[in-house]
Amino acid sequence: MKSLGKDREHGQFFEYRSVDTDMLAWVCERACGERLPVLLSREIWSNLGTEQDANITLDCVGSALADGGMSVTLRDLGRFAQMYLQGGRFNGEQIVPEDFVRACGRGSTPAFEVLYGPFLKHFPSAAYSNQCWVLDSEQGIYSARGVFGQSIYFDPASEVAIVKLSSWPDFINSEWTVNNFRACAAVVEELQRS
Q1: Exposed/middle/buried for 22, CB within 10 Å: 0-12, 13-18, 19+?
Q2: Is 188 helix (H, G, I), strand (E, B) or coil?
Q3: Rounded Cα distance, 123 and 62, in Å
Q4: How does DSSP classify residue 9?
Q5: What is the mean pLDDT of the chain?
Q6: Cβ contacts of 29 within 8 Å, gap of 6 or more
Q7: Matching CATH number, 104-194, of 3.40.50.10420, 3.40.710.10, 3.40.50.1110, 2.60.40.1080
Q8: What's the CA angle centered on 124, arms 117 and 86, to 5 degrees?
Q9: Which of 67, 144, 167, 194 could form a disulfide with 21 if both were Cys (CB 3.0 to 4.6 A apart)?
């Protein structure tokens, strides 16, 4: 991380970099004086009534890989998704601040379009906010995306969250990602007709 230079002033266009997620985890650890796995377990996971422990990959010096090293069961990830769908609440307890969760579905499309213009062809009001890929800033629809096709699709207005575990052959596949989100939107649309 020390070798990374400053590309631009803060507040200019958005560019996703996994290393920023790792840095965010280190800031959380430093601020709380505890390792990321302990923080996640105490502050989130243990409050969701999960059935299984989550696993977090550690690097060679024992640091958690926050940028893509967590694995959980489908049902437990569904509990996490439901908590976000309920504005950060689960079993009557506020686990994540509601304002933070609401902001996950809102972001700056102009800051996003500089590098992600092709994505805007499919999702014209897309953005990025609070570690989430915003698909529709106007409707507040967003996704938590992982590598190899993992995703959670959130449509809070429709009260629907869709969790998908995958094993794509490619780390990232833009076409499959777009099709995945289109399929999720079609499922929500069909549920609304019922």
Answers
A1: buried
A2: helix
A3: 39
A4: -
A5: 93
A6: 35, 36, 39
A7: 3.40.710.10
A8: 120
A9: 67
Q: What percent of the chain has pLDDT over 90?
A: 80
Residues carrying CATH 3.40.710.10, the chain: 104-194
- Angstrom distance (rounded) from CA 50 to CA 55: 13
Cα-Cα-Cα-Cα dihedral sign, residues 146, 147, 150, 155: positive
Q: What are phi and psi of 10, to 5 degrees?
A: -60, 140
pLDDT given for residue 6 in this prediction: 82
- Residue 1 above 80 pLDDT? no
pTM value? 0.92
